[in-house]
Design a protein that fits this description.
The protein is an alpha/beta fold and 137 residues long. The protein has two domains: 39 residues; 91 residues, Nucleotidyltransferase, domain 5, CATH 3.30.420. The chain is built from four helices and seven strands; from the N terminus they run ααββββαβαββ. The strands form two sheets. Strands 4-3-2-5-6 form a five-stranded mixed beta sheet. α3 packs parallel to α4. It is elongated.
Length: 137
């Protein structure tokens, strides 16, 4: 009888520790990836209001250019000059001709600041830069 009891305990078992470790690693990865993506959209930019605003369909290939109230150009959370923006957009278009660029201009900035960014994008080969706005209620 003792031999039979030991044989039943030695049955097949599944180790849960590696699976739990993997689940936690995936959870941490997706939390960090989501945080980095949200940082760009959460800058203190007061967008102008539009009645026909729409979401962007292809976020994966998108370059977001922010123009703050003082007219500074910000990409990826860093302030850059117009020449650097020109080279950045040109490089992106060289890699992907269908590159999408979204310009998020603060509604309190001079429109000339936004036009400068749009002009840089068009000159670098972006056919249709998007202007981000807020939908009215």
């Amino acid at each position: 009888m003792i031999i039979q009891a030991n044989q039943q305990k030695a049955g097949i078992s599944i180790e849960m520790t590696p699976m739990i470790d993997m689940v936690f690693l995936l959870l941490i990865f997706f939390l960090v990836a989501t945080t980095f993506h949200q940082t760009e959209r959460e800058m203190q930019i007061a967008l102008p209001v539009a009645s026909s605003s729409a979401p962007i369909s292809a976020i994966l290939q998108e370059l977001i250019v922010n123009v703050d109230v003082e007219g500074r150009i910000i990409v990826g959370g860093r302030r850059i000059d117009p020449d650097r923006l020109q080279s950045m957009v040109s490089e992106a278009v060289a890699v992907n001709p269908q590159q999408k660029v979204t310009v998020r201009g603060d509604r309190r900035t001079a429109y000339a600041n936004i036009v400068t960014v749009l002009d840089i994008c068009k000159g670098a080969g972006i056919q249709e830069p998007y202007l981000d706005t807020v939908l009215t209620d």
